[in-house]
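R.M. (postdoc): so does anyone remember the format we settled on? I'll just put the structure tokens first.
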């Protein structure tokens, strides 16, 4: 009788072992397949199933797939950040004029000047744009009556010289008692070369007429020259 022998197991040869190493090395360069890759290969799409619990036997029941709306294709658009140009800082302008000059300050350019007829006419001709209230002293030559209380006073220096016309509206009848030859004081602003709109008039006594006009006129001339230089 023949004894039953064990099945013959093929032994691993060296050539077979090398071939297995080569096959395994070729598989190392491949990545593991993902669910998405498998879906693309099979041409199928992963879908969500509907499962409900049966009230009778309390088991899950399959009821098909959940309908999914197609997602709109979204394209990524790169919008560069706008470049903001930095504005250079504004240069502050240095204040013009001398701090000690009151005529350089805004809203304070009105001045009051004092002088006789010839001096005031001369200064007005030199500085026609000057914003000034003029205090003119002179001798009354004549009063010309106009319409609706308008009076024109012709005034000049004591001896001779140019004549200034002072326009004044005498609604109170102040000029009725005035006679030519008296010394008067006119306060107003020029509206022409030798015409002045008069706001206030008054007679001047001999004591007031003897005041030092020469000193006041020289001081006024100096102030106007200094202001003109520093503009």
């Amino acid at each position: 009788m023949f004894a039953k022998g064990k099945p013959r197991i093929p032994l691993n040869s060296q050539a077979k072992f090398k071939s297995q190493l080569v096959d395994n090395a070729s598989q190392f360069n491949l990545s593991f397949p993902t669910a998405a890759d498998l879906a693309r290969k099979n041409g199928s799409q992963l879908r969500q199933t509907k499962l409900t619990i049966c009230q009778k036997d309390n088991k899950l029941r399959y009821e098909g797939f959940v309908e999914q709306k197609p997602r709109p294709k979204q394209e990524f658009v790169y919008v560069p950040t706008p470049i903001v140009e930095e504005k250079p800082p504004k240069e502050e302008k240095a204040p013009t004029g001398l701090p000690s000059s009151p005529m350089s300050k805004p809203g304070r350019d009105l001045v009051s000047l004092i002088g006789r007829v010839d001096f005031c006419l001369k200064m007005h001709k030199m500085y026609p744009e000057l914003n000034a209230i003029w205090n003119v002293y002179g001798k009354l030559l004549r009063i010309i009556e106009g319409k609706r209380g308008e009076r024109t006073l012709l005034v000049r220096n004591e001896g001779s010289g140019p004549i200034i016309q002072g326009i004044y509206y005498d609604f109170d009848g102040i000029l009725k008692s005035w006679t030519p030859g008296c010394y008067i004081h006119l306060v107003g602003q020029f509206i022409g070369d030798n015409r002045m709109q008069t706001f206030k008039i008054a007679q001047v006594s001999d004591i007031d007429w003897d005041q030092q006009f020469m000193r006041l006129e020289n001081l006024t001339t100096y102030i106007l020259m200094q202001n003109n230089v520093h503009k």
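R.M.: ...and that's the designed sequence above, right after the tokens. Also worth knowing: The first strand starts at residue 49 and ends at 53. The radius of gyration is 57 Å.
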